[in-house]
Amino acid sequence: MSDVQMGRELLGETAIRDKVAQLGRQISADYRGQELLVVGVLKGAVIFAADLVRQITVPVYLDFIAVSSYGKATRTSGVVRILKDLEESIAGVHVLLVEDIADTGLTLHYLRENLLARGPRSLKLCALLDKPDCRRVEVPLDYVGFQIPDQFVVGYGLDFDGRFRNLPAVHLLSREAEKK
Ligand code: 5GP
Predict the structure, then answer these.
(1) Phi, psi (deg, nearest 5) at residue 65
(2) Which of 16, 121, 150, 161 would suit a FRET pair with 74, their CA atoms being 20 to 30 Å apart?
(3) pTM, whole model, 2 decimals?
(4) How high is the pLDDT of residue 69?
């Protein structure tokens, strides 16, 4: 068994629920009268995307894309690779890309360029969490849940070595665990 421990709670269930509802209202207003394809980035954004789409009142289609991730390390490799692509063309479609967290920005930057090249009618970016101090490349975030400090977090979809995704709240990872 791993001795990795989750640290203190950073964002509680109620705060997350309220924020997701607020984002859903904003997105519903912005896309009023239109249809929207929500693209969740696997696996981290799956729980956020599942909750968010249920707060959106315009017609929503849902798809997922998977990119290479950190694995055991908590720092980005800077290399992004598509592991699972979208099922259908997004040409002429309003697309909202939903990510768990913007850290260096490399993943969202890569996905933004990649999706824009497919000719969507529009493309907006949504991240539940944003670590602005960590940015290595600028990405235009249209919807952000919470700005957080430069600390590794787990829960609500976010993992450490595959664990903790099922926690209903967002927690810090203990310092001991981060050094591993
Ligand atoms: P970026 O490409 O912006 O550096 O990182 C994006 C990805 O890195 C996220 O989708 C997520 O998988 C991972 N990541 C960045 N920061 C954290 C963090 O604090 N906790 C966890 N669990 N993953 C993170």
Answers:
(1) -135, 145
(2) 16
(3) 0.93
(4) 58
